[in-house]
Amino acid sequence: MALARAIVARPQLLLFDEPLSNLDRDLRESLCGEIGALLRELGTTAVYVTHDHEEAFTLADTVAVMRGGRIQQMASPDALMNDPASLAVAEFLKLGAVAAGERTHDGWRLGPGIALTSPPGTGWREHAAAAAAGSALPHAAVPSHVHAPGPGHLFIPHSALRPADAAPLRGTVISQRYRSGHYATTVRVGPETGGIELAMLTHARLPLHTPIGLELDWTRLRWFPLAA
User: Fold this and answer.
1) Which of 104, 122, 97 lies closest to 190, judged by CA?
2) In Å, how far are 58, 168, 175 from 67, measured between CA atoms?
3) Is the whole-model pTM more than 0.85?
4) Distance of CA 52 to CAs 19, 41, 56, Å?
5) Tens digits of per-residue pLDDT, 97-111?
6) Which domains does the chain have, with CATH numbers?
């Protein structure tokens, strides 16, 4: 009823402040889609405040991520998911794992005994070598957020990982929970103390403490160096 009263006058701008927060999941998802379709049909601009990432990505053409009262990044949902502008945005959206480490000439060191070596041709290794030599690769050959060797954080999104028996990166399943037709799976790589936890989506339930191989999509990794 409140929405009907708001749109009957065909306003140029509508403000929503977490209107679906008290509804159960099925009804929230249904109304979220209906509100988005209605706003687009009417051609009405809306500012929609929510703490639910999926709700924001379903409704919005443009999403603003705020922290401390300031906008950290404003972009389309696809751009936010695939190319977060900062470490703060990547952590807030919970789209994967963030691991502290050191950028090397051919990959990263992320903890005791954890070394990732980038394959030739991905741009990561070639850019580091070019930076060390004082030259640069053509812009099109350099992945986003590639930097010279040094300390920082590596963002490994869910979408960059998949199970692969023969993969050189190995880990152990430590938790799983069902989410929207998939299992959100957490895998520990490295020792129990000092290792890192990576997250991915799998189609099947995996027994806890099962060893697993992990294949990386290097094009989806993002490196955030420490500020000078």
Assistant:
1) 97
2) 21, 38, 29
3) no
4) 11, 23, 6
5) 888 999 888 888 887
6) 2-61 (3.40.50.300), 96-225 (no CATH)
